[in-house]
């Protein structure tokens, strides 16, 4: 959700538009997993995407989109796949999510092609350094450049994003059989760049460094409570005007800092 106090363009300021985007998405996966006699576990299943959006964003002709900030819906689908194995102290996991192919938002097809979700791969290991304390290391690749809306340059109606390569590390401490504490850090170079800052000003993604902490507490044999906190350190980009034109958007700046708290309840049945 992005709501700017002022419009991005002069025409937008005159018409009172080009400063708001609300985008919501939900992903539901149904996965079947099986553990084999050699210790390897394999999971696979389809996923369904439901998204909603409203915006008063400007079109390429500097007019307000025909959607005029009314809600529109989109459905999509894809699949996920994963493998996992644990030895005495070492564990390995790999997860793959296909592109999540989605419908076009009909009210906003004058601005956006289908907002597909990119395919991604994540590989991770954990190692028990001492009893009940594990060290974790992950690598994640997100294929932004292959998705039409994300890979295209801003002057072509996209965001000009590069693929993400993210390294995550952390530690897990099983304090008791019912309580686990976690800390973590991740770094991934921002997918946006200084050539397309103006195009990304309603969809800012500059943050590169994150730290996190959290816990899980087992309330009963079937119920677990989890909480986590994530901080994304402030990062700024300034438009250089190379893609949008020297006089159109040069000097536009995007900054973002993030604090996120998540609460989860897990029920085993």
Short description:
With 269 residues, the protein is mainly β. It has helices at 10-15, 148-151, and strands spanning 2-3, 20-29, 32-35, 41-55, 72-86, 90-97, 101-102, 120-130, 133-142, 164-174, 179-188, 209-218, 223-238, 253-267.
Description:
- Strands 1, 2, 3, 4, 5, 6, 7, 8, 9, 10, 11, 12, 13 and 14 form a 14-stranded antiparallel beta sheet that branches.
- The chain is built from 2 helices and 14 strands.
- The radius of gyration is 21 Å and the shape is elongated.
- It is mainly β and 269 residues long.
- It starts with a strand and ends with a strand.
- Strand 12 and strand 13 form a beta hairpin.
Point out poorly predicted stretches: none
Distance between the termini: 35 Å
Biggest sheet character: 14 strands, antiparallel
> Please, what is the average pLDDT?
93
Question: Could you list some keywords that capture this structure?
Answer:
269 residues; 14-stranded antiparallel β-sheet; 2 helices; single chain; 14 strands; mainly beta
Outline the secondary-structure elements:
Blueprint: E1 2-3, H1 10-15, E2 20-29, E3 32-35, E4 41-55, E5 72-86, E6 90-97, E7 101-102, E8 120-130, E9 133-142, H2 148-151, E10 164-174, E11 179-188, E12 209-218, E13 223-238, E14 253-267
Antiparallel strand pairs: 1-2, 2-4, 3-4, 4-5, 5-6, 5-7, 6-8, 8-9, 9-10, 10-11, 11-12, 12-13, 13-14
